[in-house]
Amino acid sequence: MEFQFTERETAFEAEVEKFLKAALPEDWPEHARQWPGGYGALEPESKEAKKIAGEFNQKLVEKGWTTISWPKAFGGKAYSNMEQAIFDERMSYYHAPAFSIATGIAGPTILKFGTDENKQDWLPKIANKEIEMWLGYSEPNAGSDLAGIQTTAVRDGDAYIINGQKTWSTKAHTADCAWLIARTDPQGHRHKSISLFVVDNQTPGITIRPLNNILGIHSFNEVFFDNVRVPRRNLIGQENMGFYYLMTALDFERLMVGVGAFKRGLERLTGFVRQAERDGSPLGRNAAVRQRLADIAVRIEVAYLFFWRTASMLDKGLVPSVESSALKLVTTELSRKLADVYMEVLGPYGQLLRDEDGAPFNGLAPRGYLDCISATIGAGTSEIQRNIISMRGLGLPAR
Ligand SMILES: Cc1cc2nc3c(=O)[nH]c(=O)nc-3n(C[C@H](O)[C@H](O)[C@H](O)COP(=O)(O)OP(=O)(O)OC[C@H]3O[C@@H](n4cnc5c(N)ncnc54)[C@H](O)[C@@H]3O)c2cc1C
User: Fold this and answer.
1) Is residue 310 scored above 90 in pLDDT?
2) Which residue's CA lies nearest to atom 16 of ligand 1?
3) Cα of 279 to ligand 1 centre, how many Å?
4) In angstroms, what CA-CA distances link 122 with 43, 165, 367?
5) What confidence score (pLDDT) does residue 13 get?
6) For 225-290, what is the HEC assignment?
7) Which atom from ligand 1 is nearest to the alpha carbon of 377?
8) Could you give the CA distance from residue 151 to residue 164 in angstroms, rounded to a whole number?
9) Across residues 150-170, what is the average pLDDT?
């Protein structure tokens, strides 16, 4: 079986590529400094990079390209999921600063489960990039087992009062609203007592404290909710159905893998190997190096096949749940493998940090070596993805 894009898809891919080349400086990946699959540097770090990212997102809004697969009624272009995947692949290949929890996770979940009121309240704002969100799922005592959350939301007239703590909350300090799960029926079944809310960060009673990641960057936080009053209309969908919406939201999150960044990462290393010499011989002749690069190339191809497959399943109205876990597993483990190979191929030079003399790719390798671990934990660990595949894919019983 041979997969090929349609004429329309091929033309769209070329259009996205042309847009990206015009909208981002040629050396943008150097500014972005994001390891393929890594969570460590989702936000641009320097002032200059932040400015470029802001302008880039404005250009996306002007082009109507923030939510291309959404229905036109909600600010989308009604493009296919395959076109969305083509768009995402090119964006990630160019390390474009387009990562968004609101457009990638919250919006699609509201489209699927939200009430009419939810759709009117949130979708236009998301499509126009007026709001960004952070994910309020994990708590100190609930990560892999999210049904164990202790944060509560208690009805009080036309509002809910939220109390509790979230942790590892990526972007909570830069986003506008929480996409939050809280327990609305403490006596109920653990999966049928959770609800999903959008909570404005400015609401009184919210305290956000920084947590630095392994790169030393303030990327995530712990967030405290102390009698936070949230309007009832900020409940998404039906009360106590939030855990089921969450499962779909997690599937959307697991599909947000930037496969293009892996291809770019391999091309960068292969380019280095082509021109480098070691002990007087071209590095490209070194058998061990060739083996490593070929191995990575095959793994990237596998990731791409899962990626296109999930898009094509979505276009057929199928639910790629096992496939989204498989895609997440394959790409995040690849993130670690790629970091290992960078280190092996670069040898001692691979340990040189940014701005040190002779540091290949200006110190990206040691950064990637640290950052790659995060990918295998966030959005559900590799063990949890294997559990999902064994239960939903292989029909094995839950433990
Ligand atoms: C970089 C990063 C960003 C994150 N961003 C966010 C965010 O924005 N919002 C948010 O809500 N959370 C976020 N998280 C939290 C993340 O979702 C959790 O860390 C993850 O789900 C694991 O939960 P835990 O840390 O509580 O570990 P635990 O659930 O305590 O797991 C500990 C270990 O036990 C293993 N384990 C647990 N249960 C099983 C099982 N049933 N079978 C086999 N092995 C098991 C796990 O795989 C892991 O190795 C982020 C995490 C990281 C690393």
Assistant:
1) yes
2) 378
3) 44
4) 23, 24, 36
5) 98
6) EEEEEEEHHHEECCCCEHHHHHHHHHHHHHCCCCHHHHHHHHHHHHHHHHHCEECCEEHHHCHHHH
7) 53
8) 4
9) 98
Residue 40 CA: nearest ligand 1 atom is 1
Q: How close is the Cα of 221 to the center of ligand 1, in Å?
A: 15
Distance between CA atoms of 112 and 71, rounded to whole angstroms? Answer: 12
Q: Is residue 133 scored above 80 in pLDDT?
A: yes
Q: Is the per-residue pLDDT at 319 higher than 90?
A: no
pTM (predicted TM-score): 0.95
Please tell me the CATH code under which domain 256-393 is placed. Answer: 1.20.140.10
Of 34-43, 73-82, 147-156, 245-254, where does mean pLDDT reach its minimum? 34-43
CATH among 3.40.50.300, 2.40.110.10, 3.40.50.720, 3.40.1190.20 for 133-240: 2.40.110.10
Confidence label for 272 from pLDDT (cuts 50, 70 and 90): very high
Checking if the pLDDT of 262 tops 80, the result is yes
Among protein residues, the one with the nearest Cα to ligand 1's atom 26 is: 143
Question: What is the residue extent of each domain of the chain?
Answer: 133-240, 256-393
Closest residue by CA, ligand 1 atom 27: 143
Measure the CA–CA gap between 331 and 378, rounded to whole angstroms: 13
44-66 pLDDT, tens digit per residue, is: 778 888 899 999 999 999 999 99
pLDDT at residue 399, rounded to an integer: 73
- Using CA positions, which residue lies closest to atom 48 of ligand 1? 381
**Residue 34 and residue 371: Cα distance in Å, rounded?**
9
Instruction: Give the helix/strand (H/E) hosting 221.
Output: strand 218-231
CA–CA separation, 295 and 58 (whole Å):
39
Q: Which residues line ligand 1 (CB under 6 A)?
A: 39, 134-135, 137-138, 143-144, 168-170, 220, 374, 377-378, 380-381, 383-384, 387
- Give CA separation, 166 vs 61, 101, 182, 267, 376, in Å: 31, 17, 10, 39, 20
Distance 132 CA to ligand 1 centre (A): 23
Residue count (the chain): 399
Q: Letter for the amino acid at 355?
A: D
CA of 166 to the centre of ligand 1 (A): 13
pLDDT, mean of residues 215-243: 97
**For residue 383, which atom of ligand 1 is closest to its CA?**
47
pLDDT at residue 43 in the model: 75
